[in-house]
Amino acid sequence: MNKKKLFAGALSLAMMFGTALPLGMSAAPSLTAGITANASDYEEVEVDGLTYAMYSDHAELKYTPSDIKGEFVIPSTANGLPVTHTWSSAFWSKTEMTGVFYPASVTDISNGGCFVGSEKVEKLTVDENNPEYCSVDNIIMSKDKKELVLLPPAYPGKEFVVPETIESIESCAFYNTSIESIIMPENVKKVSYLSCCRMPKLKSVRFSSNTESIGNGAFKDDVMLESADIPASVAKIDRGAFEKCTSLGSITINNPECKVADYEDTLGVKETTVIRGYAGSTAQTYAEKWGYKFEALEGGPTKAISLGDANGDGTVDAKDASFILTEYSKLSTGGASSLTDEQKKACDVNKDSKSDAKDASAILAYYSYLSTGGTDDIETFLNDIE
Length: 386
Hints:
By secondary structure, this protein is an alpha/beta fold. It folds into two domains: 3-19 and 304-385, Type 1 dockerin domain (Orthogonal Bundle), CATH 1.10.1330; 26-296, Leucine-rich repeat, LRR (right-handed beta-alpha superhelix) (Alpha-Beta Horseshoe), CATH 3.80.10.10. The protein is built from six helices and 23 strands. It has helices at 3-18, 282-290, 318-332, 341-347, 357-371, 378-385; strands at residues 43-47, 50-54, 59-63, 69-73, 77-78, 81-86, 96-102, 123-126, 133-136, 139-142, 147-150, 159-161, 168-169, 181-183, 190-191, 204-206, 213-214, 227-230, 236-237, 250-253, 259-260, 274-277, 293-296. The strands form five sheets. Strands 9-10-11-13-15-17-19-21 form an eight-stranded mixed sheet. Strands 1-2-3-6-5 form a five-stranded mixed sheet, with no helix packed on it. A four-stranded parallel sheet has the order 18-20-22-23, covered by helices on one side. α1 (3-18) packs across α6 (378-385). The chain is globular and about 70 Å long.
């Protein structure tokens, strides 16, 4: 019998008892899965006043008339071919357009919603039968609601709290919106290129502590952004991420080994931006090379705690299970948690947003597996026995 399956049985028993465009954006079309036409082999065709890039098996909306008023409904077909994609140029300078409806045929909106000069757009909706996208409160998301795809430029309100299900902020998602503050939930791991650029009123961003990367030009030209606190989880900041952020007084890099794109404009404006980080960090190296003022953070960086290592001693064993049960007992009797966010993530091995007897039981099963020569990490082990 597979060793992991054997321990899965032990785990089940234990759990039973334990639970008593702009900006250099390319206008080239991006094709969806299943499209077979050559990307360079298309004909520009006008149909009913709309201009399409026409391929052998699909059409892509390229230009629309400047005098569009109200909500614009994208046709699902053009000359008998499905309309599958909208170019970034499709909705520029539509001063009287207030909304866009995407049919089920449009399965690629990437870079297709930069509403340059179309500031009255407030409504974005998607056909409920669209296989790739959905719309919630005039926000476009991927069908599984893990990717934030597009907000309208006239989205109301000063603060935007990203929905809890979102894991990735896609390219141009916030482009040209008038939002002043963005708050990202803990699920967000990726802030894509140009995702939050040219936001004329953006003053603050609260990143997820699980964010892993900040893409090329992500906050470029956000001239009102005052500061940025980049969490220790961020391993990479791409070129021009904070380019021309002229009000950026400080940017704090909490990961001493964060890979910062080696260009002068990646972290702000050297005349006005102070880079804060740990002594000897990549942030200090970057600041000194490009002439930014650098301020050293006190102490040393907090060491990341791995999944299952609840007590932070560098190993996953019975002590961690005991640690979790003690915490669980305290919470069950009305006590307050004393765990840091990092410890809570380490304790929640089954990722159900709780630290309880089920997590302790899973750790014991994994510890037994290691004791008999197992070599996989705890996440791989638990995935294999599901």
